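User: Predict the complex with 2'-deoxyguanosine-5'-monophosphate.
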Amino acid sequence: MSDCLFCKIAAGEIPADIVLETDDILAFRDIDPQAPTHVLVIPRQHFDNVSDLTRDDKDLAARVLSATAEVAQLETLERGYRVVTNVGSDGGQSVRHVHFHVLGGRGLTWPPG
Ligand code: DGP
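Assistant: Here is the predicted structure with 2'-deoxyguanosine-5'-monophosphate placed in the model:
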């Protein structure tokens, strides 16, 4: 999508601090980190949010989830971490391109606000 921020990051049109990159997935550091490690994992392909993923996308969805684990390993989050995806306004989603937050490096409280 031409007006999507994360599509532009995926296309290299907007710079990002990239942690992991494959043909169809990108992981980059969040611009406003909420923990010592805060990385966003996205498919390069545009989906508004996780609700738009269907059974047809199961292989890509599995690769994205697997990439979150790989990021945790690269960031040495051996004490644990959290994977979050926000959906819609009540879910706190501010960027409409599906993304998984990988947060770690400190003890995280529950429930989130
Ligand atoms: P969410 O609120 O769940 O939609 O998360 C969107 C995240 O995207 C938020 O934590 C801040 C981050 N973000 C917004 N703009 C940029 C940007 O231009 N670059 C990077 N690296 N992260 C961004």
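The two ends are 31 Å apart (CA to CA).
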